Every structure is written in structure tokens, then in C-alpha cells.
Amino acid sequence: MKRKLATARTLRLSPNEEAMFLKEEYERRRKLRLQQVREQQKYISYQIRQKVKQRREEQLHQLEEALRAEWQKAQDEKMKALEELYLSSLRAVGEGHRQAKEN
């Protein structure tokens, strides 16, 4: 009886079973590796998309700052021109009376 239990525990696979087991293990590992590669590609793609998004946002921000500075400069120039026109108009207010007195 002991002998049968000892041999029952150490049963060996037949060559066909062993080949099938090895093939299944190979396929399992292959599928696992493919899955890992797909996940890695997804992660790399995500990183690339994030970098592109960040670069686009930075460019938009720089463009916004440049346009804002250009607009502010134009506004300052307009304001300066209007102030000069206003001051020249103030100086000219009394000029009409003076010319009228002279004539």
C-alpha cells in the first residue's frame, strides 16, 4: 500500500502531456508579455499626449502674453496721443480770445 502511494505522488507526465503543458505555458507567457507591451504603449502614448497638451498650453499662454503686451502698448500710445491732443486743446482755449482782442 505504501508503495502505491509513493508512486502515485511521483507520476510523470507523458511526452504529449509535457509538450502540451510547455506549449500552454509558452502561450500564457506570450499573452502576458503582449499585454504588458500594450500597457506600456498605452502609458507611453499617454505621456506623449500630456507633453503635447502641455506644450500647446505653454504656447497659447506665451501668445496670450505677447498679444496682451502688444495691446497694452497700443493702448498706451493712444492714451499718450489723446493726452497730447487734450493738452494742446487746453493751451488753445485762450488763444481764440487773445486773437480776437488783437484784431
Q: What can you see in these coordinates?
A:
By secondary structure, the chain is mainly α. It has one domain. Helices cover 93% and strands 0% of the residues. The chain is built from 2 helices and no strands. The protein is rod-shaped and about 140 Å long.
Distance between the termini: 146 Å
Overall structural class, as computed from helix and strand content, comes to: mainly alpha
Taken together, the total number of domains comes to 1
Percent helix range? over 70%
- Measured by DSSP, the beta-strand proportion falls in under 5%
Helical segment tally? 2
Overall pLDDT confidence: 90
Largest sheet: none
String of helices and strands: HH
Question: What labels would you give this structure?
Answer:
93% helix; mainly alpha; 0% strand; 2 helices
Question: Mind sketching the topology for me?
Answer:
Layout: H1 2-9, H2 15-102
Protein name: CE295 protein
Coiled coil: 49-84
Keywords: Coiled coil
Give a quick rundown of the structure:
The chain has 103 residues and is mainly α. It is built from 2 helices and no strands. Keywords: Coiled coil.
